[in-house]
Structures are given as C-alpha cells and as structure tokens.
C-alpha cells in the first residue's frame, strides 16, 4: 500500500489574505444580470477553518476517492478536533500507512471505504489505526492541468 497523502502543514490563522467576495449568488443555470460591485472581503481560512489550532492541510494522491469528489492533487482541509463519525471522510494511518477514506461499517465492523470500486474496503480489525482527522473541505482546481 503506497501513501495516498502529503502533509503540507498546519493552519496559521494569524496570517490574513482577504480576497474580494461578491455578495450575490451566481446562478449555475440561466444567467442573470450581474451586480457591478463587491460587498465584502473574505479570508478563506476564516471561512473554511473553524478550529485553526487543530486543523491542517494535506494533499491527496491517487484515484481511490474520486466518487467522493476528491481527486489526485486536491488540497484537503482536515480538522483533528472533530470526533469521526460513520460516513465521515477521514485521514488515517493504518499500520503506519497514510490514507484518505470514508469511515464505514460493514456487518457491524469498522472499515475504511474508498470512493472508487477498483479499491476494496479496508477492514480495521486487528490493525493499528490512528485517525489523523476529519476532512471538512476539499479544494481542487477546475482548470486543466498544464495551464498557468
């Protein structure tokens, strides 16, 4: 089993990087007349991170979580302060190997479930398992790779 994540670092909530926030929803259907003004500024850390001292970023690798919308190269925002629940996406060390999977139950037993039918469930019975946190957000580019 190869590693499926790269730890990038912890969240530093003291550094603010405010970006313009358009305070008008964008329609994903038919276009509507656009408002020509910005309402506020938004810091993504403030928006995405509820527990800065317990949150870190990690980069996903591989194709095992594509049906959950997690793709290779995505940046995951992981909160260690949350208690993992069944159906949460978690970062876990299983017998020393890092992986990102969905925490699940099969016949009353805990498993880590992939989001790709090519990857079988991982039984946690008899294994050393450390949950590194619950994935609360994923950030991925919609631009094709190779574009600057």
What do you see in this structure?
- This protein has 148 residues and is mainly beta.
- It is 3% helix and 40% strand.
- The strands form two sheets. It has an eight-stranded antiparallel beta sheet, with no helix packed on it. A two-stranded antiparallel sheet has the order 2-3.
- The protein is globular and about 50 Å long.
Task: Briefly say what this structure is.
The protein is mainly β and 148 residues long. The protein has one helix spanning 44-48, and strands at 5-10, 18-21, 40-43, 55-60, 75-79, 89-94, 97-106, 109-113, 122-123, 129-139.
Topology:
Elements: E1 5-10, E2 18-21, E3 40-43, H1 44-48, E4 55-60, E5 75-79, E6 89-94, E7 97-106, E8 109-113, E9 122-123, E10 129-139
Antiparallel strand pairs: 1-4, 2-3, 4-5, 5-10, 6-7, 6-10, 7-8, 8-9
């Amino acid at each position: 089993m190869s590693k499926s994540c790269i730890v990038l670092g912890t969240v530093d909530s003291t550094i603010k990087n405010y970006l313009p926030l358009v305070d008008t929803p964008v329609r994903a259907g038919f276009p509507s007349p656009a408002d020509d003004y910005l309402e506020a500024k938004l810091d993504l850390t403030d928006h995405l991170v509820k527990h800065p001292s317990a949150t870190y970023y990690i980069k996903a690798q591989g194709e095992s979580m594509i049906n959950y919308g997690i793709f290779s190269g995505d940046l995951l925002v992981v909160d260690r302060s949350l208690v993992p629940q069944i159906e949460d996406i978690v970062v876990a060390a299983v017998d020393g190997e890092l992986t990102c999977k969905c925490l699940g139950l099969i016949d009353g037993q805990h498993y880590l479930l992939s989001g790709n039918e090519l990857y079988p469930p991982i039984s946690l019975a008899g294994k050393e398992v450390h949950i590194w946190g619950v994935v609360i957000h994923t950030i991925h580019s919609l631009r094709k790779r190779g574009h600057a």
